[in-house]
Design goal:
By secondary structure, the chain is mostly beta strands. The protein contains 4 helices and 19 strands. The protein binds copper (II) ion. Copper (II) ion binds next to loops.
Length: about 270
Amino acid sequence: MLYKTDSSYQYKPVETSYLVLPSGGRAELVLDFTSIQRDRVIMQNILLQNQLILNPTPSSTDQIMSFTPNVNSKKVIDQPKLITLNPSLGIFPFAAKRLEPRYYTLYELKDANNFSNGVLINGVHMGVDSDIFKLDREYDLYIINLTEDTHPMHIHLVNFQHYKKAPIDLDMYMKDWKRMNGGEPPYNMKPAVMKPDSYLTGSWTMLDGVHRVWRDIANVESRTVSVFRMRLKYNNGKDFDFDASSGRYVFHCHILEHEDNDMMRYFSVS
Ligand SMILES: [Cu+2]
């Protein structure tokens, strides 16, 4: 039973047999061993790409943890009740008032031999362009993944809810986006951004109770637009009790090889 993710309780505990955990994501679980008749239970890592199970991960990482339940124990403990843990999660994001959309493309740079030279956010190297977010606004970040990989996108300072996603026609979007910006990335100035709406190849899917939670990292699947709704407040809706406008923060992919190769951008708060 999942009841807590990166930094807050779920709306209510959710029963699940699996969990897609982004690289660097955190979760707290209550495991139910009451019907287990084995003396060893293994927690396993599987490789997911766009919700499909691919090849098993290498043997060094496929087995995470082993449990040894005491099958002879007659001790009965109270089952946790399915109570509402975090009512504000149910209200946000659907009560957003001063909502502003922002658009970000994830684009893989390739050389003449089709080898990767890194992944860029909005087609620029880190520091070419940055964002300012206002404390009194709420934002829908449209993350448009034009690559063949899932990227665990991470935001410093704020939590968000990854609340919907839709498939996109990658080739059509990329063609028009490059034409609008005068050719192939990397661009050396703030690029034009394009709304993805008219390039979607399916309807929006709302994320379920397992995944629509307060997070600071969420997976954005390949050929998918994911929408993160965020506000610059604590998860309970209260204002920050520190000066968020001092300093800069970053928004980046949590895969080390990607973040170290420019898949990162600054933002500041005013
Ligand atoms: Cu990445």
